[in-house]
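residues and backbone:
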Amino acid sequence: MFDLGGATVLYYIAICLVAAGTPGPGTLAVLNSALYSGVRRTLPLMLGIVFGLGGVAVATVTGLSELALHSTLAFAVIKYVGGLYIGYLGIRILWPLFNSKQEEVKSQKTGKKMTFVTGVILSIFNPKTLVFFTALLPTFIHQESSVISQTVSLTLILLLCTFLVHLTYSTLCGYVSDFFVRHMIWVDAITGSMFVCFSIAVLLLS
């Protein structure tokens, strides 16, 4: 165990695990996809989320993230693109529920896969991700050491924690998918509603 800016790596790992494990657009997307498609077909989504987080990390190192936070226009673009896309996913999940037959709902799921691109967008255009890297990450960096190397190390820890948490969630979903598939209308109703709520919360973020 080593120390970064007065905070232990284990403490940072705990924060990363909590951040990755708490309900959010990425986590909900992974859960919904895993219940329908299994772990293997959810891997592209999980890798997309990790790739998007890596992109935000690069933006943090180059100063683009801080610039976006302090630019009204840039932050507004991120907020509205992310919020509207999350809302779109929620509506896309909820829309088939208006059908009268559960079989029709199931038959429409083939065109609703969460892809690699979905994961990238959910990461890059999520203000929560931007704030995490620009506000929380610097508190774990020791200014007397190489900032870039520490940022890379901390980012890799975050990416690994996020991937492992999502992989654990999707694996667990595989064990209970048989039960939930018989009740996917309720799962979709909850997931879609939460996506819409996240969308509203992001769009109202000041």
Strands lie at 3-4, 7-8. The chain is about 80% helix and 0% strand. The first helix runs from residue 9 to 21. Residues 87 and 107 are 22 Å apart (CA to CA).
